[in-house]
């Protein structure tokens, strides 16, 4: 049984998409071992508790990154987590954290990286005038929104879109992309060559 740890800071809709995919066995042979939030009142925490999942608050405010990260690493290890999924976790990971789970941390970002890293990616893309938008699931490395790309999903920007409707349609794609990427990574049927994620059949 693959044990997944989820890190959130807010709403948690990607976390719920992953939880639903596990319940439906779309992500087979997996369970959510723990949901950790660095924000005490993150709505995703309540959702985790409602589902009977272990939900832990490790508040980051006012703490040194390395010290907070050490607590998060301890918590993930104590729950025997094999794969860490960042799902709207609004905090950079320290190099120690990245090294603690080598190529075992995924993130989802609401743009077609390397375009529009950082905050408000959908608004950035909309303001730039892109005609194709989307989302990216990638391994986490020490740079923001930078690691090897596992999977991307693209959608057209419609003439009727504003940044809000675009973000909503990207989010629908995120909820498909993240479970799909997790299934593939957990299958182990891939190799990473430089920056390239290569599927092995
Ligand atoms: C998503 O857009 C995700 O791509 C980004 O943060 C947002 C989190 O949303 N990293 P949610 O908390 O999963 O609903």
Contiguous uncertain segments of 5+ residues: none
Strand % is 25-35%
The assigned structural class equals alpha/beta
Please state how the strands of the largest beta sheet are arranged side by side. 3-2-1-4-5-6-7
The major beta sheet can be summarized as: 7 strands, mixed
Apparent shape: globular
Count every beta strand, where a strand is a DSSP E run of 2 or more residues. 9
* Ligand types: 5-O-phosphono-beta-D-ribofuranosylamine
CATH class of the largest domain equals Alpha Beta
Query: How many individual helices?
Result: 6
Radius of gyration: 16 Å
Here the CATH topology of the largest domain equals Rossmann fold
| SSE string | EHEHEHEHEHEEHEE
Task: Please indicate the count of domains.
Answer: 2
Helix coverage percent = 25-40%
CATH homologous superfamily assignment of the largest domain: Formyl transferase, N-terminal domain
- Give the integer mean of the pLDDT values: 97
Describe the structure.
This protein is of the alpha/beta class and 201 residues long. The protein has two domains: 1-102, Rossmann fold, CATH 3.40.50.170; 107-201, Rossmann fold (3-Layer(aba) Sandwich). The chain is 36% helix and 25% strand. Strands 3-2-1-4-5-6-7 form a seven-stranded mixed sheet, with helices on both faces. Helix 5 packs across helix 6 (163-187). It starts with a strand and ends with a strand. The model has no long low-confidence stretch (mean pLDDT 97). The structure holds 5-O-phosphono-beta-D-ribofuranosylamine. 5-O-phosphono-beta-D-ribofuranosylamine is lined by residues 8, 10-14, 44, 87-88, 108-110, 171, 174.
């Amino acid at each position: 049984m693959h044990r997944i740890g989820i890190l959130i800071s807010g709403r948690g809709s990607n976390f719920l998409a992953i939880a639903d995919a596990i319940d439906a066995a779309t992500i087979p042979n997996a369970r959510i071992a723990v949901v950790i939030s660095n924000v005490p009142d993150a709505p995703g925490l309540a959702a985790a508790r409602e589902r009977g999942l272990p939900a832990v608050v490790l508040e980051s405010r006012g703490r040194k990154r390395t010290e907070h990260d050490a607590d998060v690493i301890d918590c993930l290890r104590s729950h025997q987590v094999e794969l860490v999924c960042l799902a709207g976790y609004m905090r950079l990971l320290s190099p120690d954290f990245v090294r603690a789970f080598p190529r075992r941390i995924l993130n989802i970002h609401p743009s077609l990286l390397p375009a529009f890293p950082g905050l408000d990616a959908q608004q950035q893309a909309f303001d730039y005038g892109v005609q194709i938008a989307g989302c990216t699931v990638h391994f986490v490395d020490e740079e923001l929104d930078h690691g090897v790309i596992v999977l991307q999903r693209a959608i057209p920007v419609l003439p009727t879109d504003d940044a809000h409707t675009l973000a909503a349609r990207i989010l629908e794609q995120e909820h498909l992309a993240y479970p799909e990427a997790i299934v593939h990574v957990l299958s182990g049927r891939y190799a990473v060559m430089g920056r390239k994620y290569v599927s092995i059949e």
